[in-house]
Fold:
Amino acid sequence: MEQRANIKFCFKLWKTAAETVELMREVYGDNCLSHAQIYRWYTQFKSGVETIEVEARPGRLFSSGNEGLIVKVRKRIQECCVTVRMMADEFGVNRETICQILVEDLGKRKVTSRLVPHALSDDQRHERVQNAKYIIKTARRNKNFLNLIVAEDKTWCFRYDPTIK
Structure:
């Protein structure tokens, strides 16, 4: 603000923009506005603008303070596994807005791209142990194990081979 006032002062004294740049660099050193900014302000003063306030930029206002949206996001992440992109499409907002709500407003952070439940039932725990044992046995016995791993719908899985025990 102070530098803009000084640019306007130099303009009123009929200094050229180049002279003003030199004077500003003498006074402010490394903290001086750039050459382009000084020329931009000079152009505005020449066109008749008298204020040194920065005008608000046109465009969409960004606010993640929308309480209704925050409540919807909170409710949606508690229901079931959902991606940021799915919520952005569902609520009609930008993905970055959803990310900002998750991080800043809800205190969430991305740990992994896959959902890992914190509490497993006994059946789920048993199933995971059995699958892990199967994968270890398969890797030890079958040198061609990596060829069994396939990508289906961008989710990695392996083909169960009942002949391996």
In short: The beta strands are 149-152, 155-158.
